[in-house]
Automatic annotation (TrEMBL), chain A:
Organism this protein belongs to: Marinobacterium lacunae
InterPro entries the UniProt entry points to: Xdiol_dOase_suB
Protein's UniProt name: Protocatechuate 4,5-dioxygenase beta chain
A GO term for molecular function: ferrous iron binding
Stretches assigned to the Extradiol ring-cleavage dioxygenase class III enzyme subunit B domain: 8-272
E.C. code: 1.13.11.8
Gene3D superfamilies listed in its UniProt record: LigB-like
Matching Pfam families: LigB
Lineage of the organism: Bacteria, Pseudomonadati, Pseudomonadota, Gammaproteobacteria, Oceanospirillales
Automatic annotation (TrEMBL), chain B:
InterPro entries associated with the record: LigA_sf (IPR036622), Xdiol_dOase_LigA (IPR011986)
Keyword Oxidoreductase part of the UniProt annotation: yes
Residue intervals of the Extradiol ring-cleavage dioxygenase LigAB LigA subunit domain: 27-111
Enzyme class: oxidoreductase
Species, as recorded: Marinobacterium lacunae
Name recorded for this polypeptide: Protocatechuate 4,5-dioxygenase alpha chain
GO molecular function: protocatechuate 4,5-dioxygenase activity
Domain of life: Bacteria
Length: 281, 122
């Protein structure tokens, strides 16, 4: 049977992708942020997951406003990325895992979730920056990826509780897949930031750390927030907590071990959190 | 009747259905800037490019003025407006400053003033 061996949360801000392109990882501005990745990569190298289920939000590359799914799941053998208009270099395609994708789709629809099913999508920096951070120098091509997108761009967005439940259903689907496979689940984006309007630049380190604490010990507390609550506390893009909650939902109800945590703020306009959670058997 | 209007947050325009409806053509134009040829076509003749996407005069003037808060008010989405950054050579700190009435340096200082440095248990 397939097994979820861990969950990783990480930011996906474009500036981090640009910093990698330019080799700025060891500069004073970025050093503390990048310091957390070698131990995470070490864990990945030891555990060798076969598949990564990656929760992300599309920022107007593939899923723009004309047809914007609330939840969507990739069922493609391969995912390309492309020019997004402002400077991250596209990376070679990410390999898909169609069999588990379709198993998850079947399980979700049988359990009353109805995502958009995508056989041909490009993935944007929301997916490629985390892949590059966790498997640098294109070594991600050895792992199969299932991208799952959540609308964080246009209201109404799914409630935090719904993203958690959606992730939980995906976790259940993985655990009942009959093939032996090790799966890691990635929650990307966040934490506090606001890019738009006169309130741009707001950060909330206390709230970010509260969210990281509760994500481990009591995610139901975070599910009590509405998206407007999150916007008030951590800025308009704090709603990206959706992907963290989906990841946590997939790990199951027991309290996982928090193996690693890092929090650096600000990077670009964002409070950047990283966690490695190991579910208990 | 149930009212689905979102609770207001100061200094923030929720990008909801009403905003998305008003801003559709503008956001569609910005979406086109994923393509390098489109960015070059805009730079070569902004007026013709805006006309091609049937922007209202208000939208055209706000873009001529690079008035980002006005563009948001008219229905722009920050995710699509970010694609203007490639055209005009902005980064998110420049954009943050333009919207919050600060110079880029002042905006960076504002970010830093809320900064937390590193906290880790790893």
């Amino acid at each position: 049977m397939a097994k979820i061996i861990g969950g990783i949360t990480t930011s996906h801000i474009p500036a981090i992708g640009v910093a990698i392109d330019k080799g700025l990882e060891d500069t004073p501005y970025y050093r503390d942020l990048f310091a957390i990745y070698p131990p995470i990569r070490e864990w990945l190298n030891e555990e060798k997951p076969d598949i990564a289920v990656l929760f992300y939000n599309d920022h107007g590359l593939e899923m723009w406003l004309d047809k914007k799914p609330t939840f969507a799941i990739g069922c493609a053998p391969e995912y390309e990325n492309a020019d997004e208009g402002w400077g991250i270099k596209p990376i070679p395609p990410v390999t898909g895992e169609t069999e588990l994708s379709w198993h998850i789709v079947n399980h979700l629809i049988e359990n009353d979730f109805d995502p958009t099913v995508c056989q041909d999508i490009k993935v944007d920096h929301g997916a490629t920056v985390p892949m590059t951070l966790l498997w640098p120098n294109h070594t991600y091509q050895g792992i199969k990826v299932i991208p799952v997108s959540i609308n964080c761009e246009r209201h109404p967005m799914p409630k935090p509780s719904r993203s958690y439940a959606f992730g939980k259903a995906i976790g259940d689907a993985i655990r009942c897949w009959e093939k032996d496979a090790k799966v890691v689940v990635l929650g990307t984006g966040g934490l506090s930031h606001q890019l738009d309007g006169p309130r741009a630049g707001i950060l909330n380190g206390d709230f970010d750390n509260y969210c990281m604490d509760k994500l481990v010990s009591d995610p139901q507390e975070l599910c009590k927030f509405s998206n407007v609550d999150l916007i008030e506390k951590g800025g308009a893009q704090m709603v990206e907590l959706a992907m963290w909650l989906a990841m946590r939902g997939a790990l199951g109800e027991g309290i996982p071990e928090e193996r690693l945590r890092n929090y650096v703020s600000p990077i670009s306009n964002t409070g950047v959190g990283v966690q490695l959670l190991i579910p208990k058997d | 009747m149930t009212d689905y209007k979102m609770r207001p947050v100061e200094g923030t325009i929720h990008f909801d259905g009403a905003q998305a409806t008003k801003g559709f053509n503008f956001n569609k134009m910005c979406f086109s800037f994923n393509n390098e040829d489109a960015r070059q076509a805009f730079l070569a003749d902004p007026e013709a490019y805006m006309e091609k996407f049937k922007l209202s005069e208000e939208f055209k003037q706000a873009l001529r003025d690079k008035d980002l808060n006005k563009l948001l008010e008219l229905g722009g989405s920050i995710y699509y407006m970010a694609k203007l950054a490639g055209i005009f050579g902005w980064n998110m700190q420049v954009i943050g400053g333009m919207q919050s009435g600060r110079t880029t340096e002042e905006f960076q200082a504002y970010l830093d003033s809320q900064g937390r440095g590193k906290t880790t248990n790893g």
